[in-house]
From TrEMBL:
Official protein name in the record: Homoserine O-acetyltransferase
Primary gene name: metXA
Pathway(s) this gene product operates in, as recorded in its UniProt entry: Amino-acid biosynthesis; L-methionine biosynthesis via de novo pathway; O-acetyl-L-homoserine from L-homoserine: step 1/1
Reaction catalysed by this enzyme: L-homoserine + acetyl-CoA = O-acetyl-L-homoserine + CoA
KW DNA damage (keyword) present: no
Domain AB hydrolase-1: 46-353
Length: 371
């Protein structure tokens, strides 16, 4: 049994579940917020799932209801664009554990009627994928024409191909990895500690009080640095001072780069939940696709008929090209059909979200070739 509610262009479906999680717990009911674009073919053969990154959401190609800004990937998704909504039925779901309508720490615990907070069960990337599978069952989509994602979305794309190989015809994995390194985990832990050190966090029970905005803003600032490149920061900001008396030294954002990061942090807290940030970063840190398959990454794709397109960027130091090459080597060892390209960009990890004609050509060509 399930119910489906519409909120403008978005929908929220309540699935009875239960969803069995990797951590041993079960979740029921399961709410999934999602958006769709285009028309599903009569045989449901043209569905493309777009998976979002850590702080993304289901508003991939429509105005965000809280910020009023365009969707986070309007460059790639829409009529005549690489993920073409005139040919494909595009689905984008808010991941499990997030805060834009899907079940997460801010959701009401059926047992108490109060927000779960830190009583929400620990989740993994594979749990997110299983929840998406439940959504596709609800929509009547047995097999995806493609699953597409960048960063954490790429982790989901890889997990989809490994978890449901018979349900995925093609996978596009952009600026991503098959497991988090110690450095990745370290950066996330700095952010989590910033949130938990905020006195307003209160062990996660802050939903009827002032949220830990200062801690979450610092976490966002630290993470945002990893999304950029040194060359990009230097070109954009260098050591430029703010437009005020340069002799007025102090700690009020003397440098433009300081002001930029503070703006990123403050704008983030208006649209994201601190507990969700803790849960999702932990899910990313747990992600190790090889470990899920006996310690050998190739075994995750053994015998798969899924076709893969893997893309990296030369200035991405969060998930450098070596990580993508490792995935491609595993795909080759498994006998999977895989193509790989490293693109040049000054924008670091965030390049997949920004204007990139080369990325558009790669994704468009690949999706047309597998259609």
């Amino acid at each position: 049994m399930s119910s489906d509610r519409r909120f403008g262009p978005s929908r929220t479906v309540t699935l009875s579940g239960p969803l069995r999680l990797d951590g041993g717990a079960t979740l029921a009911p399961v709410e999934i917020a999602y958006e769709t674009y285009g028309t599903l073919a009569a045989d449901a053969s043209n569905a493309v799932l777009v998976c979002h990154a850590l702080t993304g959401d289901q508003h991939v190609a429509s105005e965000h209801p809280r910020t009023g800004k365009p969707g986070w990937w309007t460059r790639m998704v829409g009529p005549g664009k690489p993920v073409d909504t005139s040919r494909h039925f595009v689905i984008c779901a808010n991941v499990l554990g997030s805060c834009m309508g899907s079940s997460g720490p801010a959701s009401a615990d059926p047992a108490t009627g109060r927000p779960y907070a830190m009583r929400f069960p620990v989740i993994t990337i594979r749990d997110m994928v299983r929840a998406q599978g439940m959504l596709l069952d609800h929509l009547g989509v047995a097999r995806l024409a493609a699953v597409v994602g960048g960063s954490m979305g790429g982790m989901q794309a890889l997990s989809w191909a490994a978890t449901y190989p018979d349900r995925v015809r093609a996978a596009v994995v952009i600026a991503s990895t098959a497991r988090h390194t110690a450095q990745n985990i370290a950066f996330h832990e700095v952010g989590r500690q910033a949130v938990m050190a905020d006195p307003n966090w209160r062990g996660g029970d802050y939903y009827d009080r002032e949220p830990p905005a200062a801690g979450l803003a610092v976490a966002r600032m630290a993470a945002h640095i990893t999304y950029l490149s040194e060359a990009g920061l230097t070109e954009k900001f260098g050591r430029k001072l703010q437009a005020r008396d340069a002799k007025s030294f102090g700690f009020d954002a003397d440098f433009q780069v300081e002001s930029y990061l503070r703006h990123q942090g403050l704008s983030f807290v208006d649209r994201f939940d601190a507990n969700s940030y803790l849960y999702i970063t932990r899910a990313m840190d747990y992600f190790d696709l090889a470990e899920e398959h006996g310690g050998r990454l190739a075994d995750a794709f053994r015998g798969t008929a899924t076709r893969f397109c893997v893309v990296s960027f030369d200035t991405d130091w969060l998930y450098p090209t070596a990580e993508s090459r490792g995935v491609v080597h595993a795909l080759n060892a498994a006998g999977a059909a895989a193509s790989f390209v490293e693109l040049s960009s000054p924008f670091g990890h965030d390049a997949f979200l920004l204007e990139s004609p080369e990325l558009s050509r790669v994704v468009d060509g690949f999706l047309r070739s597998v259609a």
